[in-house]
Amino acid sequence: MTNAVSTPAPEPTTGGKRRRRVVLDAIEAAAVWMVLACFRKMGVESASNVAGAIVRTVGPWLSFHQRALRNLRIAFPERAESERAAIAVAMWEHLGRMLGELAHMDEFDCLAGTRVEVVGIEYLRAMRDDGVGGIVFSGHTGWWDLLGKSINQGGLEAPVIYRRVNNPRLNQIMHRARTDVTPAYVDKGAGAARTLISGLKAGQHFMMLVDQKFNAGIAVPFFGRPAMTAPALAQFAVRDGIPILPVRCERLGPARFRITYYPPLAPANSGDRTADVAATMLRVNQMIEGWIRERPEQWLWPHNRWPAETS
Fold first, then answer.
1. Residue 12 CB burial class (10 angstroms; 0-12, 13-18, ≥19)
2. What residues does 229 pair with on adjacent strands?
3. Is the pTM of this model over 0.85?
4. What is the end-to-end Cα distance of the chain in Å, rounded?
5. Within the chain, how many helices (H) and strands (E) appear?
């Protein structure tokens, strides 16, 4: 009697992989749509509370949780492990609340002073009226999706430079949820660079989140460690004199936020363009780092901000 030899299953063809990806994308998008639809049926505070509780429970079991803890050890080596763990759990609750609140984006009025308190709006309006193009920048702190709406309601048209979600169906759902009254979103990449260059020359404005890893960028200290940082913001400010305006979002409670606009950040001006770009991005990183230190549970800690060997 001969032993049966099992034959490995053939590798899926390229077409098979593509069809499987399309099916998985459709399932993922349908699941998110149903979740948002459920949260939409609740009041905004209830949606925030329920979503926050769910993700607070589930988040620590996800693989991304270990990366969040690793990043917290890099940023806060002086803090106890238990304190860093508490920050990570609170971050998951914050991200969950954002999901519940996203289903009610159209209910947030950044000028009414009820759920959103806006400070320093005069700096935004001065940028609107100065006759030149400019960039409003921030990081992934608080509910960053609310910033585009605040800018638009404050009277400045500023398309948001963003990273497209890999799942195209899910990207459409998220885009519709975010853009009830916000300006256009411009997909990050080579096309965005061309749009920025031509738009700024024509006096247009843009919104950028500048705290994520950019492998083709420059190494700039962030929490005392080198972090690859996109230099475009500083390049426009140093080379072309484009004003760059910081804005920050903070969560104050369930479905309650403060958005603060700061005076334009002055770029370095030594005459050495390369050094000035690096020095300006250091100022940007230091400002965002300060915001994170004040409210660490409201930053996106699972993001792979530092090189893998940094520990």
1. exposed
2. 218
3. yes
4. 57
5. 10, 9
